[in-house]
Amino acid sequence: MPNVISWEASGAVPRKIFEKAGELGFLGLRLGEDVGGGGLDFRYTAIFVQEMMRCGSVGVPVALLAHAEFATSVIDRAGSNDLRERFVRPASTGKLIGALGVTEPGAGSDVAALRTKAVRDGDDYIINGSKLFITNGTISDFVTTAVRTGGIGHGGISLIVVPTDTPGFGSGRRLQKIGTHASDTGEIFFEDCRVPAANLVGEENSGFRLIMEGFVGERLVLSLIACAQTRLMWEEARRYGHERYAFGRPLLANQVWAHRLADVRTSLEAAEALTERALDLHILGKPCDGPVSMAKLFTCETAVDAARTCAQIFGGMSHMEECLMARLYRDCLAFTIGAGSSEMMREIIARTEGLSTQSPSK
Ligand SMILES: Cc1cc2nc3c(=O)[nH]c(=O)nc-3n(C[C@H](O)[C@H](O)[C@H](O)COP(=O)(O)OP(=O)(O)OC[C@H]3O[C@@H](n4cnc5c(N)ncnc54)[C@H](O)[C@@H]3O)c2cc1C
182 pLDDT exceeds 70? Predict the structure, then answer.
């Protein structure tokens, strides 16, 4: 917590924190025990997210989880033993930092439209293209990269692990964001970037399914983050509402504020219950696309709505950098976009509930 302000200012969590988290076993919670992981279930990731969120900077857990959950767990799940030894083992100790590269300038929600191309050449793939908005993009040692190895659409996509010291790999500028300042977000480029075919995760052209399976975990993480953020904002608003006097009495003596914060607390309770249910289904290995999408949709929209109410009670103070609420407010704004937007969640719910025949890619 004492370091959050400097990490927010520098735009990234330092490498030594990844190493420290790795030493403590936090980065390998769900990874295979045979490659140094804990072999635990998603409940432990949930506890890690909830506790890390107490630092008051969403960028910190996002950086660690984009590495451990988004970039690494898919290699652990579907990669060869050689890949798991080369990337998952050092990732679980924080020695290597990973990023997941799916989004491109021309393909975000519509993953199946991605264009970064990998062409087989002997025992290698040669990759050309670019990725955008990649968490840990400028600090990572490897990028689990979605590439087109086949024809158009979702059937032609593969996942390949690209070490960032490969000639032809380039990371561009660190993007300046409205919020989540402590997590690095970057652009990356591939120019005739040659990687061994052995770096393919799973079968060629199976990448879309792997990405979609991974999204379930990402969406649970986002749901947990959104719940924890709503709780923090609510606690801050309640504290300030008791402490701040206007017209000779605490703000919370005005029923309008007590009722507004009662509404936030009620929404939080519902958000946590939805998330718990989705988490349970996921841990039990039951079909959970619909419940996870409902949890992601509801928790993230709740957090954004709560941010507005909780910031409002702070008055002008909510606008000041020195006020924690300012950071809590702006850090919420990407929740309804990342790991599949609210609109994409509604599409999935529409499909799983028999309301739509369309098949959105995210
Ligand atoms: C802070 C941050 C970190 C990120 N980290 C990563 C990362 O590590 N790796 C990675 O690969 N990506 C990452 N992303 C990218 C993220 O996954 C995409 O931004 C997201 O999927 C949306 O894609 P887009 O921005 O291209 O928006 P678009 O797909 O262009 O959508 C724009 C808007 O239109 C809506 N829309 C699109 N299609 C439809 C439709 N059919 N019906 C109704 N509405 C629609 C969307 O919901 C959205 O509101 C990150 C993004 C942010 C903001």
Answer: yes
Residue 360 scores a pLDDT above 70 = no
- Tell me the C-alpha to C-alpha distance, in Å, between residue 261 and each of 102, 133, 240, 266, 327: 38, 34, 12, 9, 19
Ligand 1 contact via 338 beta carbon (within 6 Å): yes
| Residue 133 in contact with ligand 1 by CB distance below 6 A | yes
CB of 108 shorter than 6 A to ligand 1:
yes
- 358 — pLDDT class (breaks 50, 70, 90): low
**In terms of DSSP H, where are the helices of the chain?**
4-10, 15-23, 42-52, 59-65, 73-78, 81-83, 89-92, 207-243, 255-283, 289-312, 324-331, 342-352
* 3-state SS, residue 105: coil
Structure tokens at 348: 């999935």
Query: pLDDT digits over 151-169, tens only?
Result: 999 999 999 999 999 999 9
According to the model, what pLDDT value does residue 359 have? 56
Ligand 1 pocket, residue 61 CB under 6 Å: no
Model's pTM, two decimal places? Answer: 0.97
DSSP 151: S
User: What residue's CA is closest to ligand 1, atom 27?
Assistant: 108
Band (pLDDT 50/70/90 cuts) for residue 172 is confident
CATH fit for domain 208-352, picks 1.20.1270.360, 1.10.287.110, 1.20.140.10, 3.40.50.960: 1.20.140.10
Residue identified by tokens 């924690």 is: 324
**Topology at the third CATH level for domain 4-97:** Butyryl-Coa Dehydrogenase, subunit A; domain 1 (1.10.540)
Please give the mean pLDDT across all residues of the chain: 97
Q: Is-catalytic flag, 218?
A: yes
Label the pairing between strands 98-101 and 117-121: unpaired
Q: Which of 69, 104, 187, 218 is labelled catalytic?
A: 218
Q: Which atom of ligand 1 is nearest to the CA of 131?
A: 11
